[in-house]
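Appendix B. Extra example for self-study. Work through it before the problem class; the solution is given directly after the inputs so you can check yourself.
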Amino acid sequence: MVAPIDQVAPTTPPVAPSQRRGRGARPRIRARSGPSGVGASENRERARGLDRLWIVLFLAPFLLLYLGFTLWPLIATVYYSFFDWSGMGPIDDYVGGENYGSVLTDDLFWLAVGNTLLFAVATTVIKLPLSLIAAIVLTRTWLRGKRIFRTMFFAPLIIPVAMAGLIFTYLLNPSNGALNSILRDLGIVERSFDIFANRWSAMLAIVLVSVWQIFGQYMIYWMAALQNVPDEIYEAADLDGATEWQKLTRITLPMIRPVAVVILLLALVNAMHVFGLVVTLTGGGPGTSTYVMSYYIYQEAFATVPFDYGYASAAALLFSVLAFILVTGQGFFVRRAQRVRDEYGV
Amino acid sequence: MATVTRRGRANLIALPILIVVGVIWIYPFLWTVSAAFKTQAGLFSGGANLIPDQLDFSNFERAWVNAGFDRYLLNTVIYSVSSTLIELVKAALCGYVLARYEFPGRVLLHRMIVATLFVPVASIIIPQFVLVEQLGLLNTRAGVILAMSGSAGALYVLLFTGFFSSVPSDLFDAAKMDGAGFLRTFRLVLPLAKPIIAVVVIFQFVSNWNEFNIPLVFTLAQPDLQNLAVGMLSFKGEHAVDWTGFAAGMTISFAPMLVVFLIFQKYFVNGLAGAIKG
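Solution. Structure tokens for the complete assembly:
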């Protein structure tokens, strides 16, 4: 039943090929597999003669940028983290694990880690189910005005995140912002409140504005996933007299599960980048209580004199390791849950 | 007939909900556009009101001329277009070779791309900064473009690899029979990848347009080179009270993206699906 996903989805964008098959015991890294992958390896041939030169030329742009801006930075981050370095002069002040020691004992670092993880989990938990529901509703054939509604939900994507943050600082401000004045007019609150005066309400604001901004992107992901499900299956279900709800829970959701895992991973990792919204909405405040990791790194490395690249690198690295554990751990649990489900044939 | 009425009823329930949610959803847009026409006093006392107290076009003039929106907009367009092009080219070329040819290190490269798919950009921005500095490109447009197009794109390579792997091998055999060389074969199959190209262009353009961290860090000493997202921030500092000017600037900046968005809208929805089915 589930095999057709492989057939129709050689290239689902949010889907890293390795994860697309939620199941199967083949090596996970291989790009292709499954029934439609027959031609895949046959396509691949050994290069001869002049073709070798072309291959090098074709790989060069990606490889150069990849080496310069992904691989080398990863290695350099490790290297810097062992030095006391302000970015100027030679890197010669080796301090061993000292940076790590002071990062690990820095309360602000742990606060930033906590906030980032909280943000990542909260936005993911809110935006994924909601955008899935929106995607399901907005792909119903009977719905009128689909295009208008889709455009409405996509629209926030076109505002740069930082600008969205500025708009919301005004809309949410206590003296004459729209939210407070509406709530006052409706008699829901007596006096204006400042949502940014408290750590938790400020975090909530960041989470909600972020969900609002990025919602459309995840809706697109889900729509693509939904379109992966072959129509024939629904037609067969119709013949069997299945209800809409049965079709949703027995066909749609199980069929998009492998894609859902990848969307989940993307959502978590992307959420860990959160930066612009924090800068514009709270500036890390009140005090330092809404610091997130990227803001912490930015402050340590570029905004607070003396610059401290070594220290910031150690912090970045520790955080990446934490994030990696979280993401792979989550992948592990999802896979295990899938195995359990497979055994029961759900 | 029965299905028609059932559909009608479903619409009757869904449409009002969608309209209410949708209007709340785009309220911040409506507010911004309306604020662009308000006077300072009108904005201050207006609360949630969307009707401008008067049509005041001076906000636009202020934003465009004094606050440098023209410059920010130009920078944003340059960054977005060039980075998107670089992303597209490098991903398409690399993806093609990965899909088509066996060469030493192919599996390793593929694995590394997958492994670095989930590296948070923020955590490696310092070495990127150092690299651009050493290339002498700090505080230049080229530096920003390089950093923007350099740090993303692993996902797109995988997309192209997946796509070109699924091209029927008969096609390549036929091309070979006709004596087509490497480049001609590539040019032959590239148009087939249109759906992928559309997806890469749309996603990368949106994300470049919104990019904040890289332009901020790489133009710290050169505010003239900031994009809209970063320029806004200095706007907030220098002109803390000029919210209507800010709103006008925002309204101006919505326009180009809205055009791109409306033109490519069908790809937003169908592009991904086209990539799957096409």
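Self-check: The radius of gyration of chain B is 24 Å. If your reasoning did not lead you there, revisit section 3.
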